[in-house]
Specification:
Radius of gyration: 17 Å
CATH superfamily: Transferase(Phosphotransferase) domain 1
CATH class: Mainly Alpha
Strand content: 5-15%
Order of helices and strands: HHHEEEEEEHHH
Oligomer: single chain
CATH topology: Transferase(Phosphotransferase), domain 1
Helix content: 40-55%
Distance between the termini: 47 Å
Number of domains: 1
CATH architecture: Orthogonal Bundle
Strand order of the largest sheet: 1-4
Length: 188
């Protein structure tokens, strides 16, 4: 019931924005597929930066409305053609989204492993929920400039799968080891 009430609050916020909700046909796919397909292009940065910018703007809009997306990942960024910027990106899948309810002190967030922030394993202070989307956006940027490679699969033992893989991914996020590998020149 609580989840249903959160959805109603989110719909109420969207309705107050006084805009029509529209659906566009998807010419390309989600960003996880598209970034992989565009590896061969000579000027990949011209395609990648606009997607990151549009995604960031979308998250900023959500935050300004008091909403946490809760599941930022490449599969939830849809890409469309755009003459000026090569691509236009839109966030999708709001199943884990929450209204930052100031009546509560903390919120339990969902999300997809390993994309979600390590602090989201437990309830997060309402004032800190926005940082979980920023953390996931950072992983999305890294994924993008690593040419669509799963950064955790690059850093972890390739023989690990399933729960063992996710446990190792959580471990390197929580210990800060992940941050020691953020030199982007390594991924080009």
């Amino acid at each position: 019931m609580e989840r249903f009430l959160e959805i109603l609050k989110t719909l109420d916020v969207l309705a107050r924005m006084n805009r029509k909700l529209q659906t566009s046909l998807l010419d390309f796919g989600d960003w996880s597929v598209e970034v992989e397909d565009r590896r061969k292009l000579p000027d990949v940065v011209a395609y990648k930066v606009p997607v990151i910018e549009f995604t960031d703007k979308g998250l900023h809009m959500l935050r300004s409305c008091g909403i946490v997306h809760g599941d930022v990942k490449a599969e939830n960024v849809l890409v469309f053609p755009n003459e000026k910027n090569k691509y236009k990106a839109k966030l999708s899948d709001f199943g884990y989204s929450l209204v930052m309810n100031t009546e509560k002190r903390n919120l339990s967030l969902g999300g997809t492993r390993p994309w979600k922030a390590p602090e989201a394993k437990t309830a997060v202070w309402v004032s800190d929920t926005k940082y979980t989307d920023i953390y996931s956006l950072s992983l999305l940027i890294w994924f993008t400039f690593a040419h669509g490679r799963n950064i955790f699969k690059l850093l972890l033992d390739p023989s690990k799968h399933g729960e063992e893989f996710y446990a190792e991914a959580e471990k390197i996020k929580e210990t800060g080891e992940l941050a020691t590998h953020t030199d982007l020149s390594t991924w080009y």
